[in-house]
Amino acid sequence: xxxxxxxxxxxxxxxxxxxxxxxxxxxxxxxxxxxxxxxxxxxxxxxxxxxxxxxxxxxxxxxxxxxxxxxxxxxxxxxxxxxxxxxxxxxxxxxxxxxxxxxxxxxxx
Length: 109
Hints:
With 109 residues, this protein is mainly alpha-helical. It contains two helices and no strands.
């Protein structure tokens, strides 16, 4: 047996699904927020990957007894290359997604 709570008099009744325009606006806002959060997470992952790769090169070079200046320069080059390739991948995936959505809109017309 389920108990039903009586709503209080001063509370407004919630009517979900009654207004399609409101639902569309809410879904659009949520999609924009999710896309922005996904972009931030991608960028964070790229930064973590860059730091790890540069740190690994630095640790390996120092563990092998290589000259410090050369190891630091190599770690910087690897870090810069990793950051550049990650940012390029983010940009290309965003561009591809944009082109696919434009193509789908064009095909549906």
